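cache lookup: miss for this entity combination. No prior model stored, computing from scratch. Input as submitted by user K.M.:
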Amino acid sequence: MKSAQNSEKLLQSIFSIFSEKIPFNRVLGLRLDFTDINHPTLKFDMRDELIGNFIHGNLHGGVISSALDVIGGLTAFIGALNKMEGKSELEKVEKFSRLGTIDLRIDYLRPGKGNSFVASGSVLRTGNKVAVTRMELHNDNNLLIAVGTGTYLVG
Amino acid sequence: MKSAQNSEKLLQSIFSIFSEKIPFNRVLGLRLDFTDINHPTLKFDMRDELIGNFIHGNLHGGVISSALDVIGGLTAFIGALNKMEGKSELEKVEKFSRLGTIDLRIDYLRPGKGNSFVASGSVLRTGNKVAVTRMELHNDNNLLIAVGTGTYLVG
Amino acid sequence: MKSAQNSEKLLQSIFSIFSEKIPFNRVLGLRLDFTDINHPTLKFDMRDELIGNFIHGNLHGGVISSALDVIGGLTAFIGALNKMEGKSELEKVEKFSRLGTIDLRIDYLRPGKGNSFVASGSVLRTGNKVAVTRMELHNDNNLLIAVGTGTYLVG
Amino acid sequence: MKSAQNSEKLLQSIFSIFSEKIPFNRVLGLRLDFTDINHPTLKFDMRDELIGNFIHGNLHGGVISSALDVIGGLTAFIGALNKMEGKSELEKVEKFSRLGTIDLRIDYLRPGKGNSFVASGSVLRTGNKVAVTRMELHNDNNLLIAVGTGTYLVG
């Protein structure tokens, strides 16, 4: 119980770092939602700045890859955290600070149209050094816009 | 000769669309350099907005994937253009408007540190429907920060 | 009804081509199972020939990527077929003959241990020219050994 | 000097393991060539068994991905070895035994036609835990058939 509270507190401080101290996340307008603590999601709204195709008004491909990379990294971190039972908060924060994307594949399935978007992820494997996640981006009509696979350094 | 001039004119109008009408490219501060018409490059400067890791001041991974996706698409388009000898300018512009990323792989090799960055690309294959390109991102010390491979719809 | 029978007959002839006329599929020992006509699976048994790591007796990574590529291609083809209502059998066979892998990502999640393996796939997108699929390889303990994403030319 | 001789001896024993004790490499007919010790290449001949498209007689895509994965792993290992100056032969062999592919991207550029093929690789990054390599497959007319990028666990 106490451990769960600590983890939640830890997540909250990490998530406030995420939202307030990572400038490009603010440019993208990414908002973290961790209603389900094990499956955080990212939400963001369509804004003129994020457009790539000015004729059709679609999201820029780079906005899509950015959001999928970010949610993939967070998902990998949550997966790593779940294997750190009994470790100190300091060790957990250090783990977060060492987190990095090794490689990323993005598949652009449909034009990035919509009023708002949700990026979500799931863990395929969590090792001591490397985690692999799959990510998806849906629009507000629940249409699948893009998917990704990411390999992250978590060790 | 005339054809080369036309192509250059076409590229210039496409490139002005690119710089002025694609909002997210402006957010990223991407500047096109087509000194070598067959190998366009993108340049951009480090700015606070583009930071992902606020402790080390590195580029956000999404900035890197965005820049590599954009230069990959342009490189694919130049490749497709070179196979359109004798086609009208209209057909070439239509080709540009249909250009889209199918999928993308990014490998993050080193932290995105630097004062400015150059993204470049080369064509691996240009088919009637699909083009494949490789991309690289170097910093102003000529250090290789990231590479990518992209598959683009050009048909 | 008649159309469904035709499609099944078509699939059967394609599947016999697959099993009998593609030499490397025989080397791998791939057996097609199309109990569910929309979700074909591939089965194969562990055999000494297929080993990569002689100490642990694991499947060679190339066997895994081969099986995932093959099931991805078949899944892409089934997806394309479902959009060909009313087309002749000849057109469908021609579609099959033009099928080709554009690119492939494989994630090796766990050592390839097991007595037998099942490769399955699902369609992420079916366009007129390009299809994207996700693939999975499980062993006979239902352990997820590897996943993949493939982009296929179907046009 | 002595160190170079030792390394060569080590490589030779590793390479004989490679050729004689990895069954699927024998199925593929892979022959290691380490004339240039830092850039090993793999050669193999077209054989009926390796065919995927029986009409055109092309290499099976799985043969291509297999060969590129193998040369990528060897290239990653050579890169890791070069950072192990002064370590014992035992430590180096242990490093080899822990080598594993994390993920792989293959781009199929041209039909796999030819009498024989050469797979080669180059290191993009060698870290303590993870190495990234690029790979290429050419036929005996020096035509580029396929390229790949691989991420390998070397730690």
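stored under new cache key. DSSP finds four helices and eight strands in chain B.
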